[in-house]
Amino acid sequence: MSNPVRGDGERDGGVGSSDPGRTAGRAEDAAPGEVLLKVTGLRKHFPIRKGLLQRRAGAVRAVDGVDFEVRSGETLGVVGESGCGKSTMGRLITRLLEPTAGTIEFEGEDITRLGVRGMRPLRRDVQMIFQDPYSSLNPRHTTGTIIGAPFRLQGVEPEGGIKKEVQRLLSVVGLSPEHYNRYPNEFSGGQRQRIGIARALALRPKLVVADEPVSALDVSIQAQVVNLMDDLQRELGLTYVIIAHDLSVVRHVSDRIAVMYLGRIVELADRELLYRAPMHPYTKALMSAVPIPDPRRRKDRSERVRLEGDVPSPIAPPSGCRFHTRCWKATTVCTTAEPPLEELRPGQQVACHHPENAVDRAPRDSGVAGTAQVVPTRR
Amino acid sequence: MTAPLHEPTAKAAPSPVAEAAPGAVDEAAAVGGDTGPVQGRSPARIAWERLKRDRLALTGGAVILALIVIAVLAPVISNLVGQDPDVFHEDRIDPLFGTPKGSLGGISGEHLLGVEPVNGRDIFARILHGARISLLVGFLSALVAVVLGTVLGIVAGFFGGWVDAAISRVMDGLLAFPQLLFIIALVSVMPNDMLGMTGSSVRVFVMILVIGFFGWPYIGRVVRGQTLSMREREYVEAARALGAGRLHILAKELLPNLVAPIVVYTTMMIPTNILTEAALSFLGVGVKPPTASWGQMLSNAIDYYDSDPLYMIVPGVAIFTTVLAFNLFGDGVRDALDPKSSR
Ligand SMILES: Nc1ncnc2c1ncn2[C@@H]1O[C@H](COP(=O)(O)OP(=O)(O)O)[C@@H](O)[C@H]1O
Ligand SMILES: [Mg+2]
């Protein structure tokens, strides 16, 4: 696909040219590499209510104590099987959900407990791209209304008026300005996702959380949308948190990758380190599931790990290391002690007693606890 | 070019949405040229275009329009034919049997649909005036039900929790309530004048309120269910992510999507309410004579079913035609707005 941002000479320098609503009094932009978002001990437990009196009968521990930082200008990929709490985490940092515990700091400001009103000015800086292009656009609104909503809701009057700005945004994301009066039912999934991207980027946010932005799209279109997001990041200096359920989507665009399992981060590493030498067995298992396109590199994969069974219930997660029920390396200690997330190599944090590609943290422990299999590669 | 995944319109092949669907307009066309009209077709417009091709629905709609005109202009029309619904024409009655003189219930150039037995009031004029009562009660009680049902349904679905639990229990209770018996009991103990109204006005007013009150849970349940399912839609989250408050989400994001089911349920509720009014008047607890109502005419006609069958047939046909017209129109509207094909 031709680059939609730079492909059109009529536009004066892409989306950054007009600067809607950058008003005085806003915090200085974080320099590239500085911490933009800092999350500490973040938890979200959804209460389960039972019976007529709606008594509390337990909780879904969707996100159960995660710590990480997002640096300005980078892309943090978040991967994990479905049900691991990735979407919940994304909705917590965009403050669409109320955290149960922990803190969220954006540009040094604690935003954990801000209400609808308190969050409103920050909404310009933190935006979200949603997973399902069929439910993320209101079927009763035109493209113009949808992409114009950020300006109206934030009371921002772009130079030249909202309509002109929306039409410019449409061409920035690779649609035609003539689509202004169209309704979502007239677009394909890929085009709808472009509309969602235009809406998210309309106010030039600093941080964009994209929750599986292409998983609902045809494979042939996925790359186009990912490339568009990549181009726009460079153009606008965006910071991304991109959520995906496997590594194939995030492997090319991420600077760092966080691997989530049952509400926890089990490995957080620079992309190169993670791909060259994954340490957590779960990471390794996820990587085995990704097809390697280059046949010459297939031999690098010494063994293929197949994950057995489903993710256990987040209502009562396994004791100790949550992965031990599916881990082929698990020993007694794994069933009793939860391994802390520790930096075992510069740029690579892992929560495992028996990491791969590193010195064993509990070498004397014995007793097999896992059920997973290691299947030798066929080719 | 591959067809887009998850295209909800793909299955509804003959619908105009599918023709405009972008199966062939995917990524490439979006960047370059384009096909089709520049002005988008809104879901409402698509529904209207579908309705326009539904002959039965259009016929029903035409009959409804005619009925509305008749009801509004009832006094004018009966003046034109020189009749008053309340004037007795005892000279037209056979003094021996109390039935109209002549054949076919006394139909003549003067009395187009004949006259009533005993006192000889003009049936044509009374049918015209009866249309006023039927439509007035049918529409206004539906309006009461829609307003109550929409507000309470949205509140229940949007706020959830104990608010939802309370409203849902009330709806369950009302739906299980023997409403006809209740209305009969209530209307029969009504005072003859209240709030500056007298006689039939009181009865009509009370019927509108009570029928509407028992009707709202039907709409309330639908609206609650729709709201509940839409509350979690990502476009609502997108609005929240942009700083939208509850009022904006209710008015701008949810309400437009509720219009279709509300319209459908309203068109289905009006004929039901017309029938309820007819039943109440038939049972003698609706509008009182001399005010004319179709149900009440039918009730009077029962006594003369063999000696003057036309007296019974005329209001019967009026009720039947009206209800059928509303039902045909309502079905057409529902098909045109079918949420499965316009999402
Ligand atoms: N609103 C909610 N109420 C109750 N449970 C929820 C809610 N949202 C998510 N969950 C549960 O939290 C867990 C994590 O969900 P989610 O964050 O959507 O995972 P992922 O995006 O990784 O697939 C799942 O078990 C899910 O059922
Ligand atoms: Mg998810």
Keywords:
heterodimer; A: 379 residues; Rossmann fold; eight-stranded mixed β-sheet; four-stranded antiparallel β-sheet; B: mainly alpha; MetI-like fold; elongated; disordered N terminus; binds adenosine-5'-diphosphate; binds magnesium ion
Brief account:
The complex is a heterodimer of chains A (379) and B (343). Chain A is built from 10 helices and 14 strands.
Write the layout of secondary structure elements.
The complex is a heterodimer of chains A (379) and B (343).
Chain A: E1 35-50, E2 55-71, E3 75-79, H1 86-93, E4 101-106, E5 109-110, H2 116-119, E6 126-129, H3 143-154, H4 162-172, H5 189-201, E7 207-211, H6 219-236, E8 239-244, H7 247-253, E9 256-261, E10 264-270, H8 271-276, H9 281-288, E11 303-306, H10 332-336, E12 342-345, E13 348-350, E14 373-376
Parallel strand pairs in A: 3-8, 3-9, 6-7, 7-8
Antiparallel strand pairs in A: 1-2, 1-4, 4-5, 9-10, 10-13, 11-14, 12-13
Chain B: H1 16-20, H2 27-31, H3 43-52, H4 55-72, H5 74-80, H6 123-159, H7 161-176, H8 179-188, E1 193-194, E2 197-198, H9 199-231, H10 234-241, H11 246-282, H12 294-301, H13 309-336, H14 339-342
Helix pairs in contact in B: 3-13, 4-6, 4-13, 5-6, 6-7, 6-9, 6-11, 7-9, 9-11, 11-12, 11-13, 12-13
Bound molecules: adenosine-5'-diphosphate and magnesium ion (MG).
Plain-language structure description:
The complex is a heterodimer of chains A (379) and B (343). Chain A has helices at residues 86-93, 116-119, 143-154, 162-172, 189-201, 219-236, 247-253, 271-276, 281-288, 332-336, and strands at 35-50, 55-71, 75-79, 101-106, 109-110, 126-129, 207-211, 239-244, 256-261, 264-270, 303-306, 342-345, 348-350, 373-376. With 379 residues, chain A is of the alpha/beta class. Chain A has two domains: 35-254, 3-Layer(aba) Sandwich (Rossmann fold), CATH 3.40.50; 264-378, P-loop containing nucleotide triphosphate hydrolases (Rossmann fold), CATH 3.40.50.300. Chain B has 343 residues and is mainly alpha-helical. Helix content of chain B is 66%, strand content 1%. In chain B, strands 1-2 form a two-stranded antiparallel sheet. The radius of gyration of chain B is 25 Å and the shape is elongated. Classes of the chains: A alpha/beta (379), B mainly alpha (343). Chains A and B meet through strand 6, helix 3, helix 5 and helix 6 of A and helix 2, helix 7, helix 10 and helix 11 of B. Adenosine-5'-diphosphate binds next to strand 2 and helix 1 of chain A.
